[in-house]
Amino acid sequence: MKKVVVLGAGGKMGYRVSANLRGAPYEVSHVEVSEAGRNRLRELDITCAPAETVLPQADVVILAIPDNAIGKVTHQLADQFKRGSILIALDAAAPFAGELPERSDLTIFVAHPCHPPIFNDETDPEARRDYFGGLKAKQAIVCALMRGPDEHYALAEDVARRMYAPVMRSHRATVEQMAILEPALSETVCATCLTVIREATDEAIRRGVAAEAARDFILGHLNVELAILFDQLPGVRMSDAANRAVERAKKEIFAPDWKKVFEPQAIAESIHQITRV
Q1: pLDDT (tens digit, 9 = 90+) per residue, 61-82?
Q2: How many CB atoms lie within 10 A of CB 128?
Q3: Are residues 127 and 12 in the same domain?
């Protein structure tokens, strides 16, 4: 039986991972340095172990550690990792930035959730409100084998599927492609645009639109416009008037060269901020 260790098992992501790995066909150990984290794990009937006891035996180590601490922690523990073990990062930022130990015998694998999609077939009320995933709602994941033998991919992907369960699809990518997806696509572009949409909704309310009406109006329009733009309604297009409004507004709201956020240097700078804050 393969041995798996969850580092940072009582943190926000570590707790979710630890909960989902219960019943997995692995011997799972948990490492957590904070008393608050260890108390949370007791809710799952999980007792933590010292890192120096379990890491030297671990085939897989899940790095459930914040991006800005993962480099420091993994370098402190570098000598304790078993030769040939697999380190699974939950985000591409630290591996992309070169924050992980430079031991050539260690396999580096990255697995990140896509989160449950807006358009889904969930019928269970709890699943419909599982916005993050990892509880009831199905989601896809993206995985990358950054370093190590290809035969390690299957084991690492299986662990990823279990810790993000229920998983409906697993996509293989490179770490560089994962960095395009996040932070560039999902945070730099998408989160920014959605923040502006929320601010615009608040501005409509400030100008006299009833708050409930503004919320109903924008969330409904987001639903149908996303369905059109992401091909959920084949053959349906936005109206000519809407398209003209979009083209006119893009010139006022966005810089002409906004796609430069996808350039490698821009992504590297964004990840540097994430891992060093």
Answers
A1: 999 999 999 999 999 999 999 9
A2: 13
A3: yes
